[in-house]
Amino acid sequence: MARVEHKSPASCHATTFSRRRVNPMIIPIASCVLRFFALSTFLLAASTSIASSPGNSAAPTTIRVVMDNNYPPYVFKGDQGQLKGITVDQWNLWEKRTGIRVELTGTDWSDAQRRMDAGEFDVIDTIFRNEKREKRYDFTKPYAVIPVPLFFHKDISGISGPDDARGFMVAAKAGGNVLDVLRKHGVTNIVEYPSYEKIIEAAHDGKVKVFTVDRPPALYHLNKMGIQDQFRETAPLYNGEFRRAVPKGRNDLLAMVEKGFADITPAEYRAIDKKWLGIPISASPYVRYVGYSALVIAALVAGLLVWLRLLKRAVSRKTRELSGSEERFRSIMSLSPDIISIIGKDGAFEYNSPSAERIHGYAQDEMLGLTPLDLAHPEDRERVDRVFKELLKNPEKIANVQYRYRNKDGSYTWVEWCACNQLSNPHINGIIAISRNIEDRKRVESERLKLEQQLLHAQKLESLGVLAGGIAHDFNNILMTIMGNADLALMRITPESTAVENLRRIENAAAQAADLAKQMLAYSGKGKFVVEYINVNSLLTEMLHMLEVSISKSAVLRLNLAKDLPRVEADTTQMRQIIMNLIINASEAIGDTSGVIAVTTGCMDCDAGYLKDTWLDEDITAGPYVYLEIADTGCGMDKETLAKIFDPFFTTKFTGRGLGMAAVLGILRGHKGAIKIYTEPGKGTTFKILLPADSRPAEPAGHDSGRNDWHGAGKVLLVDDDETILGIGSEMLEELGFSTTTARDGMEAVALFKETPDIAFVILDLTMPHMNGEQCFRELRRIRPDVKVIMSSGYNEQEVTQKFAGKGLAGFIQKPYRLSALQEALRNINAE
After folding, report:
1. Where is the Response regulatory domain (predicted)?
2. Are 434 and 339 a contacting pair, CB within 8 Å?
3. What is the pLDDT of residues 566-588, one digit of tens each?
4. How many H-runs (helices) and E-runs (strands) does the chain carry?
5. 79-113, pLDDT tens digit by residue?
6. Which phi and psi angles does 179 have, rounded to 5°?
7. Average pLDDT value over all residues in the chain
8. Higher local confidence (pLDDT), 20 or 734
9. Residues 562, 537: Cα–Cα separation, whole Å
10. Residue 321: pLDDT over 60
11. Of 638 and 227, which is predicted with more confidence?
12. For residues 499 and 489, is the Cβ–Cβ distance under 8 A?
């Protein structure tokens, strides 16, 4: 049975048909049910989700739309070159509904896509959705289903699908979705034409024997050129869905387009379809026979007996056809994977296909008298009842709902229920419904949502890494300019100058800023934790401002720092994490009431008895310990809470804080430290951190100005994309006795290196545009394998040296660097 299916955008499931069909006086019930079954099969394949509307964006005054210009009856050019067809009339009606002027442009399909991607248009129409296009566009719901078969000349036999077309020259439209389908089936000898009309013209001229064209324009052009009887067609390669699409991320525009088409009434859509598709013609075979018989009687009255004999044979043949049709109907109902049901006006089942027993375990007669509500999950019954009542209220509506269906064994299965009201049809007098098992779909959707959440989390982490990389490159470049100029200024003024102290303060502030950049790199995964000797008092002083802005406004932060506090061997970043965690916990314990957070440091000798009453007492030894005590006047904890405080993911808040205190305990374990807790409900909490004190004397304070008697000689190529780095770096190198040549990126550096054979060293930035440091390093080594290259980067040395391990990297200097560090790096590689 030939069929063209067209979906109205006003409803995801509104569908109209134009077809030749069997006389309804002969097989009314079979025809109606088969008709609905075919309808519902297409409907259930469509997605029922509706994209959320975007924000309140201002509506434009004009919208630019591009589409294929040769796709009858949807769009084609008239005698005067004007665009005509179903799609054009729909857009004209959209313009009247929205009040927004529509500029329609029709062109070759490949050109339409290219110009859409170039930003010339807001919307592209007559487009199929596929994986490649989903990366560029957001799509509306489909408004027409288009079968796409293979056509072959009648002299060719043996082609039933795309696999059989291998070896043939196959004509297809340039830029069409079918190109990917053909290539997936191994069809590689493809000739692309700019339009469907050109393909049919080539077939008419005998240039192609096999081609693929969407069925509606194919029938139009084959008949127009009079070669419709010269070609045969296969079953569809696939059924494409006409949609409209907007650039990716334009949710506001997509919502506006869909709303405009949703405002067009079904009657208006039907009027457009009738205009271009025509009104179906239904001719009864009996009418033809009667007509033929009348002619025979008029011509030959003597042939009456012959006519009666022919009539008898016709009746017998029709009777056999009816029996065959009924048998086919029973076979379809029996083999269908979906449940086909007829429901009476009272809501009770009057018929269920045999698949009900396969899916839910009920025999056909066991469900008679029950209603869909009886078998729906209690949580879904209200939704099912609302849809059923709406179906009775609006007979033209096709209902669709997903709910859990009770099986005979008491378990539930997710089904998608699609139904239409045929109560007014005297041959059915009921509601026809199709139920499809969607358990696998629900499982896949659940897995997809979980995967999307994981992907979103990964993207957030990736964004943090990108931010940290930007900090390492740009922020460290600025800091290097500050530190380098301060270094040079200190070398060029007398020690008695009053500006010396100001310059040293600048150096210290820049060094602290560089440490902050390293801390952010470490948190983002772009850096490594480094254990060093630190002073807890200095660390607290540096963090003071950050701590004050992190606590509640009702809390007061007080520092009681001991003098001459010994150093501890610790990772600065991890110590910051411990302090910040405990301070924020103390602030939240105080809440909105007034309170005090006291931070105290000191040093004490701890014997085995004292340490035994601490957390993490298994591997620590008696001796001097630096303690950090954080006390609050908050709500305190009971014994039950205290016992669980270090459990992973344990929290007393409404929402968890991840590993929280468990992370604090892990950091202290790595530092051979311990923690004591004093708490009582209503009287606050005190956390006492113990870290082994360094018994060696502290290094004498003072400023290492980097003044050294060592000076080098020769030419250095300094490569960096930051002009300020090139400026200060050149001054520092010249101060050390070198002459300099500078390049702003890797490509310029390679060119200068080729032209300047006397370059002794190269200082190369890792992150640059055009050609990065790694690529430039390879080119320099290719030109001169013995060249000495020092890599410069905001990332840590371990990460960079691992990347260049075994490749001949002479050294590394981390940004921002001072003159003394540059002097040391050059002296080391010069001594090699």
Report:
1. 715-830
2. yes
3. 999 888 878 888 898 899 889 98
4. 27, 33
5. 888 999 999 999 999 999 999 999 999 998 889 99
6. -60, -45
7. 80
8. 734
9. 8
10. yes
11. 227
12. yes
Mean of pLDDT values over 549-555: 86
Asked whether 64 and 103 are in contact (CB, 8 A), the reply is yes
Cα 50 to Cα 11: distance, rounded to the nearest angstrom:
11
The tokens of 420 are what? 């239409």
Q: Helices in 560-693 by DSSP H: which ranges?
A: 572-590, 608-612, 639-644, 660-670
| Residue 150: count of CB within 10 angstroms of its CB | 26
% pLDDT > 90, the chain: 29
In b/e form, how buried is each residue of 485-523, taking b as 16+ CB within 10 angstroms?
bbbbbbeeeeeeeeebeebeebbeebeebbebbbbbbbe
Residues with Cβ within 8 Å of residue 811, at least 6 apart in sequence: 788, 790, 791, 825, 828, 829
HSE-up (13 A, CA, CB side) for residue 360: 29
Structural contact between residues 796 and 527, judged by C-beta atoms closer than 8 angstroms: yes
Q: Are the CB atoms for 320 and 312 separated by under 8 Å?
A: no
Q: Which residues contact 264 (CB under 8 A, 6 or more apart)?
A: 9, 10, 90, 93, 94, 97
Separation of alpha carbons 261 and 90, rounded Å: 8
Per-residue pLDDT at 76 exceeds 60: yes
Q: Region 265-280: what's the mean pLDDT?
A: 84
Task: Report, as an integer, the average pLDDT of 174-184.
Answer: 88
Q: Quote the pLDDT of residue 466.
A: 66
Nearest in space to 807 (alpha carbons), one of 828, 824, 822, 785? 785
Minimum mean pLDDT range among 16-20, 159-163, 609-613, 772-776 = 16-20
Instruction: Give the pLDDT mean for 605-616.
Output: 81
Residue 53: φ, ψ to 5°: -70, 145
Task: Tell me what pLDDT residue 52 has.
Answer: 36
| DSSP letter (8 states) at residue 699 | P
19 has a pLDDT exceeding 50: no
Q: What does the CA dihedral 815, 821, 824, 830 come to, rounded to 10 degrees?
A: 30
Give me 599's structure tokens: 């931070």
pLDDT beyond 80 at 329: no
At 813 the three-state DSSP class reads strand
Q: Which residue has the higher pLDDT, 349 or 6?
A: 349
Q: Which residue has the tokens 């411990």?
A: 578
d(CA 490, CA 819) in angstroms, rounded, equals 11
Long-range contacts of 270-278 (CB under 8 A, 24+ apart): 270/16, 272/86, 272/89, 272/90, 272/93, 273/6, 273/16, 273/18, 273/86, 275/89, 276/73, 276/85, 276/86, 276/89, 277/4, 277/6, 277/18, 277/73, 277/86, 278/18
What is the rounded average pLDDT of the residues 52-66? Answer: 70
Which alpha helices (H) appear in 17-138, and where do they start and end? Answer: 28-45, 86-98, 109-117, 131-134
| Range among 47-56, 684-693, 707-716 with highest mean pLDDT value | 684-693
pLDDT in tens, 510-531: 777 776 666 555 545 555 456 7
3-state secondary structure 131-180: HHHHCCEEECCCCEEEEECEEEECCCCCCCCHHHHCCCCEEEECCCCHHH
The helix/strand/coil state of 233 is strand
Paired strand residues for 66:
105, 124
Bridge partners of 421? 431
SS3 at position 823: helix
Query: Please, is 677 exposed, middle or buried when counting C-beta atoms within 10 Å of its C-beta (0-12, 13-18, 19+)?
Result: middle
Residue owning tokens 């560089």: 514
Tokens found for residue 220 = 């139009």
Contacts of 779 (CB under 8 A, 6+ apart): 746, 750, 771
* pTM of the model as a whole: 0.35
Spatial CB neighbours of 143, under 8 Å, sequence gap ≥ 6 = 6, 7, 8, 9, 242, 243, 244, 261
